[in-house]
């Protein structure tokens, strides 16, 4: 871990000096208010050692990183039946594209684009009140992070609820094909709130540990999912976790990962570590620019790419 | 290796009994003449031990599996400049789709769809006669396979040259955007012949070994590419190697792989093995059906998924 | 007019005997309850003579035929500025397609597809309460039809409001690009109600007279629009009035026309007559099947095609 | 005719002064060599009187205006069976778009976009040698123009044959769906030559007279097509004659018309006149800019719009 510590600090130092920082998301007004220079990183290895640097304890809006957790939760409830509602292929288009839905009868390509995650949230909501469903999601993430202090940033949720017209369009479009079961505004209410969950890098890395260790948290030895399911969620993160930048992330970083427009990325080094980075400036595909750069440096220096020793 | 041997034989036996075999490609008339019941598998571990079963020594048309080798060759010649001509993202559409080219100004999404591979072949051709370029490709594959007997099936090449109208369309379309440098018919001549290279599973697995071992053939200790390049080619195979079934392959098999419509799949277990399967029946996305089923069984039983121990 | 009378009665008789009637729209539940065998026709010539036959006095839901009237009204308010918000080209896709909006940044192709008409309604709404805007639309149509009895079928409006998810998607999608000014639900409230206006063929033909006579109602001699604007609205009806069946309608009927999924068509023979037909069975493009057949027979027998004497 | 003469001269004078002239097509190198300031106009009324001004006797490359004549010829040979191979709807996309072909299985949307015209040419070629087919097309146009001096500009044909990669792509794409019967290079050979036919405005207006007069040349009283067919060809010109600017042309000019990238437009005022204009600068949709401006002025001043007296 000594080595990891060193690398993590090096990278945080290097990131501080870089001037290419991407563009902070402005389409959710509340997100546009974050510090554009923030950078945090946290790595938790198999033994539970934590290497962290930068703003690793500052909570940020996890946004689409939440899709990993809601997918896990929904698979626990619906099992493979979930795949009737959402596909498993990269989309070849932007995170909020609606074109594919028209050509494929309302079935979103995968659970990690907005449309797919809305469909997943709709499954979690079924049979519940929005408040209950949201409570379940929050409890699940707190359980994964082993931290009861994780909360929802209501200002962000409200901001997106006021301005998230494309998500409203996506949801209504799917509803027109019968892909959503619940009233659209209820499903979206839960969805906007799950995106507004705020977590620090440290909390996020903790919450992702089960994916690095065959579905089990090695510290608590609590099983979250079966090993095969953990592998499969990692596979989806690899092929679909970065919207239309998934190929680039795999090519450069070589780890499964999921990004959010809040600037966070959760990456998994199977058997080795759970990693979270956060930096709000985004690249053209909507993924954290420095987050990707930092992860590329990390996997290179530690030899953690899953595509070669 | 004992265990690998056993698993390979088990799988070959199981595949022989299955009745779901997919559909043999009929759009290249010559390919439609293969035995629909053929199934072969070959696994070569780090020590060079070979476990093979079924029709593992019968040559078949490698078709798009050749794209892995021509990409490797072209990267050796053009380096990262190659990425000016072709992208690195999954396409979200069929192997021979032309739609994406119109929206993205003739730049193919990745080197593993037809358009992308044609652009890569065009790079190899530049400065050469078609015969020389084809000779170079064939020599490279023979070197990788450590087998001088690998040849081109001229009947398949001629068949595709007569009927490959969609590939002619793709190439001319790219040419109209200046993405190809050479006369279209010359580039396509080389492309159709490289697709018609015939190899057995054993030869194919041998040729893929450098990808499993950081760019180096562990038996001959010859370096083919730098470790980072091997990792990156694996990453591209993971996100783009199975056309619009890449997500599914990653989800089920958990290894980088590249398929061809001749029914072959080359899969890489980094650090562990190079694997080739061949079975001509294809699924809806144009990938070998039993090939994928066999690889899924193999990685499960041997614990070789790169997404979890 | 004697001749017109005869032709109109002949056609109504012929339509009664036909067994090819298309499919009644079922996606708006309330519309699915109409009599599938209804057929009405009304022709009003330059002198105000009316030839009518069949169910020409039965009101039906005019649906998208209303788009002609709201476009006329909005042009009166916004003038050519309206064309900042909506294009003038045929869409080459279905009436409720959303694909084009993504490729063209939320600007709908023309005012006669759903997205375009919603944008037009949004212009009418600006500066008003929904109730006022709707009142203005209804008053305008009553004025055109010279008939105060025209009303809105609230059951149809409510039905569409409950089930019109694709229209909600279209509106929110445009809103995300800033193409709509008003709250989406208010704009859609007006839109759904305008579509639910019920009129008979006789009323509809009367309301269309200004388009046949250079913007002026020849009976009352009231000017509705300038001659040039009337010609231009006719031109838009010709190229865009039947969704992705506009070419077919021009080819077969040879008159500008606008259809609605309620089965109505308003067609204009410039200088000669305003024509309305109604028959609820639709063809694959969502246009009244017998309506088009009847209009084709009418223009042929009376020599009214604008493409040749 | 006195009045027509005056208006035509006025318009030619006005066009000479305008500085907005569009962009000369550069993708066919030979076309890029024309005089960008050229402007010609010729109007032939029902009595055969000719009003002409500007460069009305200078031949230019008719390019896609030829599609009107080849459609007429092919309908004469294949009748309505032709519509098995090509549709009748506006495309909603650029003249050389290939996207629609992928979504609609190789059937082009209409005979006036490139793909559609290639399919029409393929029908004319069937059963003939390319030389014969081309001879037939040329004889037909000479017959229509009543002028044996109309010829093919071989330099333009050769230029397009060398650089027409997108047309080669379109043709091969259709061939892959079985929409073309003949070898692609033969069909394209005829197509490129028909596009390279050179005509003056006077000749072009003469050749279009049958469309203005119910299929019959009023001077020679020779029948070219039945009246219904003439009307239908006019209808297709109205909805599809200006690629993705067809709506705009209908809206502004109000006549059926067909443009070519050589800068020519043939427009038809049914019962009144056949009109040809030529000016090489194109607008964004690939239609002659001043040609459209001139026709808009002409129809306005003469009251020739078919959408209102």
Give the tags:
Beta-lactamase; alpha+beta; homotetramer; five-stranded antiparallel sheet; 13% strand; 2 domains; three-stranded antiparallel sheet
Number of helices of chain A: 13
Largest interface: A-B, 40 and 40 residues
Mean pLDDT of chain A, to the nearest integer, reads: 95
Oligomer: homotetramer
- The CATH topology of the largest domain in chain A is given as Beta-lactamase
The stretches of 5 or more residues of chain A where confidence is low (pLDDT under 50) are none
Question: So, the CATH homologous superfamily of the largest domain in chain A?
Answer: DD-peptidase/beta-lactamase superfamily
Overall outline of chain A: globular
Strand order across the largest sheet of chain A: 3-2-11-10-9
Give a summary of the structure in a few sentences.
The structure is a homotetramer of 309-residue chains. With 309 residues, chain A is of the alpha+beta class.
Please specify the SSE layout and strand pairing.
The structure is a homotetramer of 309-residue chains.
Chain A: H1 2-17, E1 23-24, E2 40-45, E3 50-54, E4 60-61, H2 66-78, H3 99-103, H4 114-125, H5 130-145, E5 151-152, H6 154-163, H7 165-176, H8 184-195, E6 197-199, H9 201-207, H10 209-212, E7 216-217, E8 222-223, H11 227-240, H12 246-252, E9 257-259, E10 264-269, E11 273-278, E12 281-282, H13 289-302
Antiparallel strand pairs in A: 1-12, 2-3, 2-11, 4-6, 5-6, 7-8, 9-10, 10-11
Helix pairs in contact in A: 1-13, 2-4, 4-7, 4-8, 5-8, 5-9, 6-8, 7-8, 11-12
Task: Please give a structural write-up.
The structure is a homotetramer of 309-residue chains. With 309 residues, chain A is an alpha+beta fold. The first copy, chain A, has 2 domains: 161 residues, 3-Layer(aba) Sandwich (Beta-lactamase), CATH 3.40.710; 134 residues, 3-Layer(aba) Sandwich (Beta-lactamase). Helices cover 46% and strands 13% of the residues of chain A. Chain A has 13 helices and 12 strands. In chain A, strands 3-2-11-10-9 form a 5-stranded antiparallel beta sheet, with helices on both faces. In chain A, strand 7 and strand 8 form a beta hairpin. In chain A, helix 2 packs across helix 4 and helix 5 runs parallel beside helix 8. The radius of gyration of chain A is 18 Å and the shape is globular. The model of chain A has no long low-confidence stretch (mean pLDDT 95). The interface between A and B is large, with 40 and 40 residues.
